[in-house]
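Hey everyone, long-time lurker, first post.

I ran two proteins through the pipeline my lab uses and got sequence/structure pairs for each. Pasting them in order. The first:
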Amino acid sequence: MSIDFFPNSDLFVTSSLSSEFDTGIRFWKLKSTFEPQHLYDLVGGHTSAVNVVRFAPNGQYLASGSDDQMVIIWTLKMTPVEFG
């Protein structure tokens, strides 16, 4: 499992096991009480456990690496505030 915060924000992404209907990549936001609020799941992509997720410094891309021996570079077309 992995976690990475979106540059200069309270938004973050986590990785976990994946299944047929779940890529294992989830976007979250920290609420003022420091409790995470689930915003969005990525659809498609990996077929095995996602081991690492990292945002590009400019926030336009997300890289993920998995036990399926693939690295996927996701293009984030929306600003994170619009996720979900």
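...and the second, right after it:
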Amino acid sequence: MPYAGQAVPAQIIRVSGTNLFKLAAKYLGDSTQWNRIAEMNADVLTNADGFIDPWITATVELKIPLPGKSNGGIYQP
């Protein structure tokens, strides 16, 4: 159950052979919001080196957040 302040996905999608920039453009209307998808799916997207990889090659299920305001693509943890 979500708690106050926890992001709730707008939808869950299954994808492969794409990247977070394209997904952000398609589902959030702004490719610079790719980091919001990355943040919500860090458990799935973090590679063996501990980095979030924006390139998706394997089939994965991703949570897509609700569209939000653009922050110019700046990562804000």
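Reply from user beta_strand_b:
Welcome! Quick read of the second one: The chain has one domain: 11-64. The mean pLDDT is 85.
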